[in-house]
Amino acid sequence: MGRLVATTWHGAGATGDNGSARWLVAVDGSACSLRAVAMVAELATREKGAGVDLVHVQPWLNKEAAETELPRRGWAATAQARQLLDAASVPWRVHVVMGVGAPEITSLADALGSRGIAIGSRGLTATESLLLGSVAYQVVHLARLPVLIVR
Fold this sequence. Notes:
Layout: E1 6-10, E2 22-26, H1 31-45, E3 51-58, H2 63-77, H3 79-87, E4 92-98, H4 101-112, E5 116-120, H5 126-132, H6 135-142, E6 147-150
Parallel strand pairs: 2-3, 2-5, 3-4, 5-6
Antiparallel strand pairs: 1-4
Helix pairs in contact: 1-3, 4-6
């Protein structure tokens, strides 16, 4: 494509290993997505070697905007989630991708070999849910692995 479409960061203690001991948590900065992070952090602390992959999906940006905005927006949107995981001493990775929410989330979970997907029941605005349909609803129908929806 000739443009940046995804970026990944590894937090302290995170490994590049894929595996079934890692949950993928969709993060958009909403209170529901942060509750999903907290719930998965609690689950991860109960299992040795468990970790969390955070994913933030951005709508398509043009080539020039993608180079600077994609990493900046993703890093900012996941700041509170990363703080929660650091406080719980849970290793994390952040994946920021461009595209449509549910297909990108489920595709990444499959590619990473995730244990399951955790997602908040509501995103940032009710209007977005009405116009676009619920991302959580779409993830449930597209996913081939367990999905944890957190209110």
